[in-house]
């Protein structure tokens, strides 16, 4: 199989990526006929050979057939790539949750201190009233 020979051509011609520049791609892959399809169904009797390779965590598939005067590559139009985790969204959710929990904790703390301060002030006022009452009666 000549799969390795065609990998760079598949990457640069079909997906505009890979190790080759545009000039290298044109120089090395101009003799290839490239067709993009939704699904690969190789006809082994006709000489189709199926190839699979990985590049940048994606799996690419294509098949090729060598005719007398040219080579034909049939490429699966969408590579199989793992879903990219939404790290930015996840980080924003975590940061937002921490901020909300912090604000909730501050609100609870403020309510608790307000209640304690009111009780303490009421006790102070009561003691002050009792002290004034005691002064009058000497």
Automatic annotation (TrEMBL):
Q: Which SUPFAM superfamilies match?
A: Integrin beta tail domain
Q: A Pfam family in this protein?
A: Integrin_B_tail
Q: In this protein, which residues make up the domain named Integrin beta subunit tail?
A: 3-86
Question: Membrane-spanning residues where?
Answer: 86-109
**What are the annotated GO cellular component locations?**
cell surface; focal adhesion; integrin complex
Protein name in UniProt: Integrin beta-1
Q: Which GO terms describe its molecular function?
A: integrin binding
Q: Which UniProt keywords apply?
A: Disulfide bond, Glycoprotein, Integrin, Membrane, Repeat, Transmembrane, Transmembrane helix
The record's Gene Ontology biological-process terms are: cell adhesion mediated by integrin; cell migration; cell-cell adhesion; cell-matrix adhesion; integrin-mediated signaling pathway
**Organism in which the protein naturally occurs:** Culex pipiens (House mosquito)
């Amino acid at each position: 199989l000549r799969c390795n020979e065609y990998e760079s051509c598949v990457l640069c011609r079909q997906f505009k990526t890979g190790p080759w520049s545009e000039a290298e791609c044109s120089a090395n892959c101009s003799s290839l006929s490239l067709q993009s399809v939704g699904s690969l169904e190789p006809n082994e009797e006709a000489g189709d050979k199926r190839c699979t390779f990985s590049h940048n965590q994606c799996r690419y598939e294509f098949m090729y057939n060598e005719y007398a005067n040219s080579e034909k590559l049939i490429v699966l139009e969408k590579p199989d790539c793992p879903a990219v985790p939404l790290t930015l969204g996840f980080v924003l959710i975590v940061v937002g949750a921490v901020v909300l929990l912090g604000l909730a904790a501050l609100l609870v703390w403020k309510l608790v201190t307000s209640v304690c301060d009111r009780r303490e002030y009421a006790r102070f006022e009561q003691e002050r009233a009792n002290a004034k009452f005691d002064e009058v009666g000497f």
